[in-house]
Every structure is written in structure tokens, then in C-alpha cells.
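Re: folding output
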Amino acid sequence: MDAIDVDVPALDRAHVWHPYASVPPQVPVHQVVRASGVRLTLADGRELVDGMSSWWAAIHGYGHPRLDGALTAQLADMAHVMFGGLTHEPAVQLARTLAEMTGLPKVFLADSGSVAVEVAIKMAFQFTGRHRLLTVRGGYHGDTFGAMAVCDPVNGMHHLFSGALPQHVFAPRPPADHDEAYLAELTETVARHASELAAIIVEPVVQGAGGMHFYHPAHLRRLRELADEHGLLLIADEIATGFGRTGELFGCDHAGIRPDIMCLGKALTGGYLSLAATLCTERVAAGIGTLMHGPTFMGNPLAAAVANASLGLLAERPWREEVARIERGLRAGLAGAAHAPGVKDVRVLGAIGVVETLEPVDVGRVQDTVMRHGVWLRPFGRLIYTMPPYATGDDDLARITAAMTAAVADIGRDA
């Protein structure tokens, strides 16, 4: 069928089920025909600055020649081959690079972030022989059942499945400031449940889709200490925080700690293909033996090749300076929203800017407002937020914050 004859919006309404949506979706879906640099071009000709990095993944922007070239070159050799009993250079190179970046020498390549978390949980269960985890409220770790069970039971988007999920231990959400009373409560909670726990699992310093909360690194350091004191594993879910997003290469770097198991994803391929990884120490790998997991597309050569190119590009570009510049721009551009009617909080860390409202936002209305300002954002709950590509220039960054401020002003008129 010739593409010119396809009514994409009509076919979408008829057949496609979008994420976190009903069918047909209640919020309009917009057709993208091209993505280049930090811009999305819609079918109606509008260009939008992408303030979301395609759900935090496209850190280099779209259509980067290095990443395009890596895919094209790899395609000339092979697109895919099974990873059971076979290996290939792109996957081996990627594993070595990730091991060097993290200090975790054993690398299991997975399909997606949720699967990486499932693998981490399996590792912890197999290593310890115990089957309960401790986490903190406000977290989000994915949409598969093991991952859902350690998401916030109220704000983690999975309350509908609460009766079907394993019951884990939840400590209170870590506060933004260093809090000795919280550290004491954390210490008591871990001690009370230590004998039944396999591991502690948290998102380091930044909690993502559970509410975009930032917390003090001291609380992460204490979790590392408590894991060591009680013989537990520490799992760091760095899927959203990895590869520079928070201003450090990994969220754990803010606290100066290394986990026993780490989950990576999202920005791993620069937003080109789905790929994730679960890494662990030599001790954990030796204690597990045979890990009972094996995705069909594990170690996909195309994904591994573009991940190698993306990590190489990240190592070469001044990402620390870029993220620091974005942080300054977000702080300046969102400062005026802090005291606006209907706003609870404005917070910024690295290349993450968040406006938290008092009431849940009307997603369609907010998107209409920001799109009129030439920006693409995807709010949820009470959050209007941005995680732009590192390549976003100052003018485009100002456009993003102006669009967010306009959305806040629109909400304020109803407050």
C-alpha cells in the first residue's frame, strides 16, 4: 500500500493501543513524520522542540550521523543472531564498556528497563534464597509484575494489580534534605525485616515516574551501609538516572557508592532501539551460577552497535557542561512558576525540570498549551516536567520553560 493512501490517524484510532491509555485514547494522538536534532515534525507541518527526549532516552537528539552510521554499518553484517551459545563483537564491546563505566564486571543484556529490573530481582532471589525486597515509597521500576511489586503502591500506576503482586517492604519516601530522623527510621525498618530480605532496590537520588522526587544522597549512602551491615544486596535502578541525566554519570555517584546490582536502559542506545542491561559484582555472579533468564533478542547486534556508538559519543562530548548549562537554564526559566496559583513545588536537578501542581493536570489541555508554544511535553498526574536532550540549545531551552510557565498560568486561572 502506498503510504500516501494511508489515513494514519484513522488507522491509529481503529487499531492502536497507546501506553497508559484507553482505546480509543481520551487524549489526542499526534502523528510524527520526522525527527531531527531536538525537533519533531508533525504531519500538519508543525515543528516541536522535544522536551522529553522520547521518554528520557534520546540524549543526543535525533538523526545523529554517528548513531545512524553505526546502525547502517552493523546492518551490513547482521541484524540479529541468537545469544544462546553464540556471541558477537558489538555485544562484547558493549559489556566491556559498561563494566569499565560502572565497576560492575558481569553484564546481562536485556530487552527493556522493566526486564532489566526483573533480571535484577531474579539475581537477588537466586543469590540469597530469599524472596522479599525492601524499597522506598515514591519509586517506579517498570510495568512487568516483578517490577510492579516494588513500585509505589499508591503513586506507581499499578494499584489495580495490588492483589496479584508479591508483598514487599516499603520504607517512607526519602526526603529532599539530609534528615537524621529519617535515617534512624530507615535503620530500624531494615533491621526489623533484614532476616527475610534478599535485597534493597531503589532509584538513586531521583525517583522517576513515581513522582519525579529528588532526595538527599545521604539516604542512599545509608542504604548501602545497611545492606552491608545486614548482608543484603543493594540494587540500583539507574534506568532513568544513568548516563549523565542528573549531572553525574550515574545517580549512585552523588553518594559515592557502588551497588551490588545495577539496572541500565533508556539512554543506553541514545533512544534508537530498545536495549537494557543488568550488571553485578563478581561475588553475585559466582553465587548465582546459572541465571534463569534468556530474552530472545538478548544482545541484539543492531542495538549493541548503536549503544557502543552512543556511549562513545557521550564520552567525547562535554556532557557535564551541557547538563550544567541545562540545569541553569531550567532554574532560571522555571523560577517564576514557583509561586504561581495551583503550583505546589518547582524543582530542578541536572537536565530535569519539574513543576508539581496541587491537583492532577488535564493532560490534553497542557499539551495543547505547550504545543502552541512549539514544544512537546507529556505531563502525568500532578507533574509538568521536562528532560530535554543534552544537545538542546539555550533558545530551545527557553522555549521549553516558557511553554511550561504558560501551562502553569493556564492552570492558575482555574485555581
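--- second protein (sequence, then structure) ---
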Amino acid sequence: MRIGHGYDVHRLVTGRKLILGGVDIPHHLGLLGHSDADVVTHALMDALLGAAALGDIGQHFPDTDPAYRDISSLDLLGRVMALLAAQGWRVENVDLTILAQRPKLKDYLPQMRQNYSRAMGLPVTAISVKATTEEGLGFTGTEQGIAAHGVVLLEPLGK
């Protein structure tokens, strides 16, 4: 078995959509980034790649490549899943935590779990997505950005 941890952060700005876990969340601010800036999916992909010792998303999907401009991070997650399978790994479970002062995310968490279930070919019961505030502290607490942590467990295929 292998455990991976991923972390990502993106700045909140005007004029962008707020996409988290593949869900378009109504909000007056969105996340700045080359792709759709889905910070949760980025943390998940880094956890997956890290557990398999396959680098990080910046190596596989550089922000200097126009092919990834505004791309759905769920599409990139599908590519990471294919890479893991080609390397002989399967995902056992996923645990994700979103750090955001606003908007409140509890109503969107079930859809995020469903999106990851479909994108990863896992039962929804193998995927946890949680959200928390930081009580007004730090860059997430002052609504300058949103951060996410991801932890995954990989097992070799065939086990």
C-alpha cells in the first residue's frame, strides 16, 4: 500500500467561476488559475501522483501549455487515473478537506463525492469530502483564497 498527500491553494478573484470538486458553485469570486483552478481536484491529483511516486500535476499538466487553458480538472483527473492504472495502481480510498471561509459548502459536498466517484470509478463510500473554515484567520479566513488537502491510499492492482 502507498499513502499520498496533496495540497493546493488558489487565489480568489473577480471574473472567474468557482469550481470545486467539479461543481460550479454560485459565488461572487472564483479561483485564479490556468485550468478551471479546481483546488480540490488539484490536491487530489497531487496526492494520487505522490503516492505512486509519479511527480506532481505541474510536471504532467504544466501551466505553460495552452492545451490545459481552462480545462476541466475532472478531465485531468481521468488522465491521472489512467496513468495510475498503467503503472499498476488502484485507489482504495480518498479523504479531502477544503479550507474556505465562504461560501458555505456543505450543500455541495454530496455532488463533489458523486463527481469523484464517476471520474475515478470508485464507490461514493470510498470518497470523503469535508469543508471547514479557519475562523477568519489566514488567507483562507480573510477570503483571499481557498486551499485543499487530499489524502489517498493506493494498492497494487490485483490485490
